[in-house]
Design brief:
Oligomer: single chain
CATH class of the largest domain: Alpha Beta
CATH topology of the largest domain: ECO RV Endonuclease, Chain A
Strand order of the largest sheet: 2-1-4-5
Structural class: alpha+beta
CATH architecture of the largest domain: 3-Layer(aba) Sandwich
Helix content: 25-40%
Number of helices: 16
């Protein structure tokens, strides 16, 4: 390591100015400069390049920067990476949402520091270990292109994140709330019940090679083991930071809260109280009040945003917190009119996943829902009945949810049996039925039916409506499928409103 660093490590401005020189460089460029400047053997360079290209290499690209650009040995100490200025270094990926889009998305959550499982945890943020690690973060953003070697990824942005900056004043209030929620659960001996869906911006993500290997005794509840977890800034929050603060002006959102609102109100209470003011009003009355076309797509989601004072597609706070608005229309008998759908699956990808690595697991583990309930008062007239936040309990997701998910995976592997009825106008299959499952069921994602069975096509859809089955089905295809939350399951969730 260099004795004389090319920056002053006791001055934030110097570190930041030096860091900005990284923009436009690849990680390979950084290694090459170091080896050239120090006149080191090119064979050693190739070995180091190979090491950092290895997907299983410990530490990865962050360690490369620490060692070869900032000239200090990577470590796991509890102090910030730049202790003299109290600043943590974080290297994090981003991706373009599409090749033609200027909109960017964070490649992953930003892991800050481990949550202690063998000692006490402070009940409040200001006295916590987390405070030291998150107060000031030097973020190095690189564009990740999955088709190329890691070392060829190029650094696109460098920014300083200061949680106490006035720019993040509202975020700070919510992060403190999130911290207290996580700490309270841990201190109650319920660390095994933690889920990323519990909180808004700050998450408690799992850490460990496998779920089984990461299980450890709890400090506050030695009888029940819990997964090792770390404090992290959620991927949705990082995406917002990237587009709104780092690369300014790419995405625009309205804000629900003023700074004063968050100082005087809890996040959830404020939202619920604001919507609850309209309980008893019909959809039609609300459409007229908030000037919404009653034929518009997603009109009830637009309505909820309007009630909250949001005129864009989504609010700043909901984007950061990965909160999804779902309006639920309930029939007179108390049963939701329909089940709740999610994105279509690709069968060949689906069967090659483990549940913990699946879209469904990450979606329900990390997403909070705002359920806004309308109940039928007379035929086809729906009144606002109530509102609540909900996320799927992690213990339910990892037990019942996992078993139901795996039942579909196993059936695809085994092979689907079809029954052709009504001269080909109706096709039955033997996928597990909704009635046999508590949480999830699979059913078609397309409005048009389309099947290819034994070389013959059925239905009024086209090839674009069909998904290829596995070889065990001899080239058969079926209409695209997606997971749905059972309406009976939703009924249980919202029964306190009804």
């Amino acid at each position: 390591m260099k004795k004389n660093k090319p920056y002053e490590d006791d001055k934030l401005e110097s570190v930041f100015r030096y860091s900005k020189k990284l923009i436009g460089m690849t990680f390979k460029n950084i290694l090459e400069e170091y080896y050239t400047e120090n006149k080191l053997d090119s064979k050693l360079l190739e070995e180091e390049i190979s090491k950092y290209n290895n997907a299983k290499a410990k530490g990865g690209l962050g360690n490369l920067l620490e060692k070869y650009y900032y000239f200090y040995e990577p470590n796991n100490i509890s102090e910030p990476d730049f202790p003299k200025i109290g600043t943590e270094l974080k290297v994090t990926p981003y991706e373009k949402k599409s090749s033609s889009s200027n909109n960017l998305k964070a490649g992953e959550r930003l892991v800050i520091t481990m949550i202690p499982n063998n000692e006490e945890i402070s009940p409040n943020f200001e006295n916590s270990h987390l405070k030291k690690k998150i107060s000031k973060i030097l973020m190095i953003w690189y564009e990740r292109k999955k088709e190329q070697l890691k070392i060829l990824n190029k650094i696109g942005f460098v920014n300083l994140f200061d949680i106490y900056d006035k720019l993040h004043e509202k975020d700070f209030e919510i992060i403190c709330e999130d911290y207290e929620k996580i700490a309270t659960k841990i201190r109650e001996g319920k660390a095994h019940e933690l889920s990323e869906g519990d909180t808004r911006y700050l998450g408690a993500c799992t850490k460990g090679a496998t779920a089984e290997n990461s299980l450890q005794p709890q400090y506050y509840n030695k009888e029940i083991y819990a997964k090792r977890r770390a404090f992290s800034l959620k991927q949705s929050y990082m995406t917002y930071l990237l587009n709104s603060y780092v690369k300014t002006g790419l995405m625009e959102y309205d804000s629900i809260f003023s700074n004063e609102d968050l100082k005087n109100n809890k996040f959830d209470d404020y939202i619920i109280n604001k919507i609850s003011q309209h309980i008893g009003e019909t959809e039609k009355e609300l459409y007229e009040k908030f000037k919404i076309n009653d034929d518009a797509n997603h009109r009830n989601r637009i309505l909820v945003n309007k009630i909250l004072g949001v005129n864009t597609e989504n609010s700043e706070e909901f984007e950061k917190a990965n909160i999804v608005i779902k309006t639920i229309r309930v029939k007179n008998n108390g049963t939701p009119k329909e089940s709740m759908s999610f994105p279509k699956i690709c069968i060949r990808d689906f069967v090659n996943q483990e549940f913990e690595d699946s879209y469904e697991y990450s979606y329900f583990a990390e997403t909070r829902f705002l359920f806004v309930v309308f109940k039928e008062s007379e035929k086809d007239v729906y009144k606002l009945k109530g509102v609540k936040f909900w996320n799927m309990p992690i213990e339910e997701l990892e037990t019942i949810g996992k078993l139901e998910w795996e039942a579909y995976k196993n059936k695809f592997i085994e092979g689907i049996n079809f029954e052709i009825l009504s001269n080909g106008k109706r096709i039955k299959n033997d996928l597990p039925k909704k009635s046999n499952h508590k949480i999830f069921h699979l059913r078609p994602h397309s409005k048009k039916s389309a099947y290819l069975i034994n070389g013959k096509k059925y239905g009024n859809g086209t090839d674009s409506d069909m998904d290829s089955l596995l070889d065990v089905n001899d080239g058969d295809k079926m209409v695209y499928q997606c997971f749905w939350l059972n309406n009976t399951y939703i009924k249980e969730i919202i029964k306190d409103i009804l």
